[in-house]
Amino acid sequence: MAVDLSPGPEVADLAERTAKFVRDVVIPVEEEHKGVVHSDDVRRQLQQAAKDAGVFAPHVSAEYGGHGLDMRGRAAVFEEAGYSLLGPLALNIAAPDEGNMHMLEAIASDEQKERYLRPLATGEIRSCFAMTEPAPGAGSDPGALATLAERVEDGWRITGRKWFITGAEGAGFTICMARTSGEPGHTGGATMFLVDADNPGMKVVRHIDTLDESLFGGHIELDFDGCVVPEDAVLGEVDEGFRYAQVRLGPARMTHCMRWLGIARRAQDIAVARAAERELFGSRLGDLGMVQQMIADNEIDIAASRGLILQACWELDRGGHASQETAIAKTFCAEAIWRVVDRAVQICGSLGISGDVLLGRFLREVRPFRIYDGPSETHRWAIARRVLRRQSKAVR
Fold it and tell me: Per its UniProt record, what Pfam families does this chain match (predicted)?
């Protein structure tokens, strides 16, 4: 049976148009701002340009103005968008908005979709996802969730501290995960709440200074103190938050991989161009064996990453949880993409660490990917545990 990994004609056309849009429109803006933009005016200008080019919101259904791509279709288009740090922002597929749209479309009520999903999908507003907490709260172990939500008259009162909440500054609403039953350490009892930005009980504590800077709205510490929300702010069902999070988790891991794979390709292209033109020791840089090895290893890491992404996306598209496939892909891609960018810096030498190209910025942006969405060590533990569990069942 033949295996065809190429996208269908409609997806291929959208990917090609996305690549052209990123190169012609987005990269000049990226270079002007050195890859870091936190201006809502620039965001809106880029998103309007993407709408005009017909490449905006490829992931949401046509009902909300998108192209309705499945996960395999997203892989092709998101990689092209990720060729620039600002490409995902322009197409409205940047984290955390892209993952939130996916989850809202899957589990929100009709009223919640109109109030939150529609303006988010059109780029009218942004959003964030408030899960991670300062130690000893939720982080790599979601079951450590400590933020509490207690029933009050006509609703819920949320109390707790969240941090590293990407995009929280200026977001129109927050999806907050809070414990509604059980104790920290329990794997159940969480509920998701939709919290409007103007809720007086939710306050920005500070912007956290981090290695990466390109994700719009920064990484924020939030305080929930007397944050009262109505009953219809519950997203999905009470006590089912961890189950609903799985709707977001696997696909969001893969879309992170897709976007950063685009940056890996960009870094490789910069390095190859440099190796082809730079002359030293009487020959081109690219004629040196050690440089050729780095270029080849980059190609191997890029191809392997793409293959693992497609495998996981195929499993997600057929309705599987794909927990093992997404964990493997995320772990490999996070480390492979870092290797590609790091080698590109090395090939370019002094140019690579200068501000004349954006390789140094790319390096800072991709390094945290080995930590967020689960650090590599946590994924390796989970991968091994599933393999051992499978072995135990086989010998019974």
Answer: Acyl-CoA_dh_1, Acyl-CoA_dh_M, Acyl-CoA_dh_N
